[in-house]
Amino acid sequence: MKYVPLPLDLIDLTRTVPVDVWAPGGMLLLKRGQAILNETHRETLRARGASITQGDADAWQNSYERMIGNLIRDGVALAVIAQARMPAEISLADYSVSREIQGGWLDLQENLLGLLYQGSAALHPLPRLAGIERRALELLDSKPEECLFVLFQALADLTLGYSATHALLSAVVCELTSEKLGMPLHTRRVLFRSALTMNIGMARDQGVLARQSVAPNEHQRQVIKDHPPKSHEILRSLGVWDRDQLDIVHWHHDQDESNGLARNLTTRRILRMADSFVAKMAPRKTRLAISPLGAVKALLSGSAEDTEKFGSAMAAAVGFYPPGTYVQLANGEKAVVIARGAKANQPHVASIIDAAGMPLSRYSYRDTGDTQYATRLPINADHIKVMVSREKVARIRTDHLG
């Protein structure tokens, strides 16, 4: 029988446990439906190596992820979600859910959010991360414009769980940039999974920080400062032994480039730039998001030759106006970007608001290479008061771009 450790720190005291708990040798320590009575009982179970079967672990994880998804969809505050513990019940359906992820980007976002929130207590983490990585790269390869569109739209919606959106979008930006730079496939893959996991040491705090209406306090600033090495230690505890991934995560914020493995200098720089690029464009209660164009200009402001090279590659990879962001056109219309163009400053867009400020029920494709539809300026998502239909955007993309 294959066992995995019981997530003791994610179980509320006196609340029933929905699985049998075993010692590694097969002795039953806690019967399904019983509870951990107090802290002494918890520590006794920990000392005896309390474990659960792989099947129960997978089903319980499915139940946890479904619970988190429901809380997010119900609009529960992220500060409350951050305190969520393992559910006391597992449905029969949870035992039949495949570990293979076949959904879209928002399904990936939900799966990754659950894993990041669990941190060192995550159940079956490495196969789950591998499944998320595999599906994300599959979706990115097949429909890159839709990928960027969905993730940049999600970035403006803090109710979805910012830490997972930030991680996925950072990973995608890293992949597009490293591919444009012609980096080896193995290096690109390590960089991708480093981006997915770089903030696991502060995922819950990251969600709270994104939505609070005041600047970070002293404790929160320390959490931000300490999270790279903490993420490194959590990954080690989960069974990650790839020295390059651990190195990249540990030093991804460090400006002193003498730290860490010299062979990862380029990947650390790219991840640090992608991390900053995505963070600048994310809204905060304390400030508006910086426009994509402003974030791109910040990328290109570095004086070092390598920094300029990486920033230029990143800007070329996502464009000055990435899919999913908004622009005002020369004719006064407001449009959502639906795809990157041949030039970074000439994206493909769909007008959603006319020059008089009225929402359009029927979106209109615009070629920004045409002077009357040229991009005049970027628009912050907070200034767009209409819901964008992904179905309408997809139809326009198919009709005009193939």
State the CATH class of the largest domain. Answer: Mainly Alpha
CA radius of gyration is 23 Å
Portion in strands = 5-15%
Q: Which CATH architecture of the largest domain is right? A: Orthogonal Bundle
Major sheet: order of its strands? 8-7-6-5-9
Low-confidence segments, given as residue ranges, are none
Largest sheet: 5 strands, antiparallel
Number of strands: 9
CATH topology group of the largest domain:
Hypothetical protein af1432
Report the helical percentage.
Answer: 40-55%
User: How many independent structural domains?
Assistant: 3
Mean of pLDDT: 89
SSE arrangement, N to C: EEEHEHHHHHHHHHHHHHEEEEEH
Features:
402 residues, alpha+beta, Hypothetical protein af1432, 5-stranded antiparallel beta sheet, 15 helices, 9 strands, globular
Please give a structural write-up.
- This protein is an alpha+beta fold.
- It has three domains: 51 residues, no CATH class; 221 residues, Hypothetical protein af1432; 76 residues, no CATH class.
- Helix content is 49%, strand content 10%.
- A five-stranded antiparallel sheet has the order 8-7-6-5-9. Strands 1-4 form a two-stranded antiparallel ribbon.
- A hairpin with a 4-residue loop joins strand 5 and strand 6.
- Helix 7 runs antiparallel to helix 8.
- The longest helix has 21 residues.
- The model has no long low-confidence stretch (mean pLDDT 89).
